[in-house]
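Lab meeting, action items carried over

1. Structure of the two-component assembly. Owner: GW. Status: complete.
Input record:
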Amino acid sequence: MLTVITLALLGLLWGGVYLLMATGLNLIYGVMKVVNLAHGDFIVLGGLLAFSLFAEAGLNPLAAFPIAALVLFGIGAGVQFGLLERITAAGSEGELRSLLATFGLSYVVANASFLVWGSQFQSVPFLEGAVQAGPIAIPAGLLAASLAAFAATLLIHLWLTTTITGKSLHATAQSALGAASCGIDVRRVRLLAFALGSAMAGGAGALVITLIPFQTSTGGELTVHAFTLIALGGLGNYAGAWLAAELLGLTEVFAQFYLGSNAAAAVIYIVFIAVLVVRPQGLLGQAGRV
Amino acid sequence: MPNTAARRARRSAVRLTILGFLGLLVTPAGQAAEGPIRIGLSITETGPYSPPAVFELQGYKLAVARINAAGGLLGRPVELVAYDDQGNPSTAVQLYQKLLTDDRVDLLVSPYQTDLTSAVAPIVNRAKKVMPSLAANTEAFSGRFPYLLQAMTQTTRYMIPVIDLAAAKGYQTIALLVQDTQFPQQLAAGVRAEAARRGLRIVFDETFAPTMTDFSALVLKAGASHPDMIVGATYLADSEGIMRAAKSQKIGAKMFAFSIGPVEPEFQKGLGDTADGVFGTTLYFPTLKTAGNAEFVQAFTAMFGRAPDYHAAVAYASLNVLAAAVSTVGSLDQTKIRDTLLATTAPTVAGEFHLDKTGIQIGYTSYALQWQHGKQELVWPADQQTAAPSLPHPAW
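Predicted assembly:
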């Protein structure tokens, strides 16, 4: 029984880490209907920035977190303004071109990172101990990253539903045309969404590099993982992404323990396919929106 | 009449051209006897896999520089012909093809890594060129490619000193965590065999996917078997993941040891204090009391501004044993060079170079290192140690 509780706790916490890495992607998709294929590379870039800030300046990842987020906010704004906003084609063709543009961008980011940091795996030692809760040792770093993820998701949700800017983001997500006709500056909203989504990737990287070593080529895997998660939850749906993250975290940990680590990698995708067969729109996605 | 003259002129022109071609075919060989002895290779100079490969290239370069400084080989200077394969096996194949047919190099040394060595093995072997190979896995040396000779410790021997140390301490049980790819799998086979030979029991044995990042459940499960040792057949990222999971879930053992991971400086940078006490393996250490090692470390540091690692050492050693065999044979006869290498035992900076009859390396061994107070120390075997091993691992 103790084992089951421990596993459940670990699964929920890892779910939080996965959520942390996916929320930015979800935000960008929700507003722009673009899957940013450079998302994982942004996470790695944020992580490696945190690594350098730690190695060169002794800054711990919590202090590096806002810096990495800010740098990626700038990069994201630049990418949106200089690249994605220039793609004028409408509808699905515009989405396809944006997708290809971010695909190219992922190579640019990964290779630029390679020139700066080289190819070795890097990581940052931070909160490596345990928080003892009765007989259960809870990994401290994992707990911190998960709490940050839950806080970030909650803040985004509140911001989107209660502030004017947030509401205009939400409105643009539902219908760009409708939003524009209500006087919302859709270009500004998109800029903000992409920059904010990128900033969340950067911040996530700064925390996750304390749990998972990154190398410059790790980005692709992280993008796939984050995309799996938001697709499972229902693209652009925050509560769905949270649910999907917990489902993936729990599945992974329990499958690893009871079926073996090798099987776990497969089980996650079996769950993914099974959910999408029954609910093609994702766990909480609305039918027809995808 | 003018026609015949023209025809005659054309015919002689054709003859001249043919002669010219023949001349082209003949002269390089004739000239080569005078020129330098050229040693060809491709190496991963750029790309994600380049850092260890650059160490190898520098090892080769140093060996060539020292051979030239000592008067060359067979009275001729030695020259390295190196191309960048970017870590791509098919590029390496094209480059070795070029080295053999265009450049017509006199000798070959190996690219970095088992995959690339396996890729070029067929063409190198078909060309009957001896190639001391820096590949730890043994498939290429089991008789299929008789011109390939292993110039690196074989994979199954990597963890022997760790098991030996554990046996000396009276440890009895091992939990073995194995990344599910070729090199760690072969390495784990070596651990199982050596453990059985020394009377240690494997109480937990599980593989994991190379993409795995969350080790918490695996380590929890390994800890449930209460092993004396947690041993990982891993690469850097896995070894860090396992140590993080162990510490943050307070899963203890008397000894933590990994194949690849602790040998890299990034292991300590990434884990901080958690790295202390962890064991790793290495094929070389700058303080080793092997033949010529002190001079090697000094010359390497002077030439490249950093201390050599094991890749540099095995590359340096492999070119040197090849050159020594050429001197012994007195010519560039590849079959004789191979037979000489198969028959000799040569002391090198990386240990005693000694091959079995199919070309598998049985001379080179491995060493156990341990992180102590943020520094790597060579701890086993005892006659080479820079510090005594610190055991058992303290409780978290």
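2. GW to write a short summary for the group page. Key points so far: The longest strand of chain A covers residues 130-133. The first helix of chain A runs from residue 2 to 32.
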